[in-house]
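Minutes, project huddle
Topic: does the predicted pose make sense with magnesium ion bound?
PN asked that the exact inputs be recorded in the minutes so nobody has to dig through chat later. Recorded below.
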Amino acid sequence: MNLHEYQSKQLFADYGIPVPRGIPAESAGAAVKAAEEIGGDLWVVKAQVHAGGRGKAGGVKLARTLEEVREYADAMLGIQLVTHQSGPEGLPVNVVYVEEGSEIDRELYLSMLVDREVGRISFIASAAGGMDIEKVAAETPEQIFSVAIAPDAGLQDYQARQLAFGLELDKKQMRQFGDLIKKLYQLYLDSDASLIEVNPLITTKAGDILALDGKINIDGSALFRQPEIAALRDTSQEDEAERDAAEHDLNYVSLNSFYRMTRWPQFW
Ligand code: ADP
Ligand code: MG
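Predicted holo structure (tokens), as shared on screen:
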């Protein structure tokens, strides 16, 4: 089962993982109110769909005034957003996430998944994160590296350092990062996740680490013991067969969404 970005980030925040402040909104008016509540003078309006590639498809817009927040929310809400991961029909935008704009220094890639080849949970990381990660994977895969975690030992400090070095972090960022991935690993275990992806994980101009995007997939077979997470299911993002299956407690993923879920960078 997929979670939306705003739901994933709420879980991140619950675990003390740093994220920008944000509020979901279902109308343009609510989006403006959200921006007012967040304050500042730079916001990002983000379409909430179960597909990545929103930035390149017009589903992530930087707004410098409340009027722009209204305009972008109004333009996104109610449409089918087509991204390179959504399939040709796109996915309905029923919610936008209004977020404070961050001052980005570098965009990094970080994810966790079960690496079936080694039978372990692995971190996948790259200093070349952001919207072109698929190109990086295709053309310069040596820029992407992974660290597998032994289940009995858990995440070790030296592995956190290995990842931090690979991401070219400075000393202060390394400390923040070490803390962040411990929390991420715990969240992965606690929530029965099959994938957690943070792309981009950023370093800010002030030198801090922040999860700027968030994607969590939960193992459908474990939902029976994750009632709080199961309640976050958004059937508007699923196709009819998946909705039917869920109603009958079947763990079924249609080939369309399987394709969506298993494409890089969500899965190897
Ligand atoms: P997607 O992966 O679906 O394209 P992201 O959330 O990764 O969506 O956003 C795409 C890009 O938009 C990011 O790589 C980043 O450059 C920019 N962006 C996203 N959120 C913010 C934010 N809160 N502040 C500043 N820039 C942002
Ligand atoms: Mg992203």
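Observations noted during the meeting:
- The longest strand covers residues 104-115.
- The pocket of magnesium ion (ligand 2) is lined by residues 52, 199, 213 (CB under 6 Å).
No decisions taken; revisit at the next huddle.
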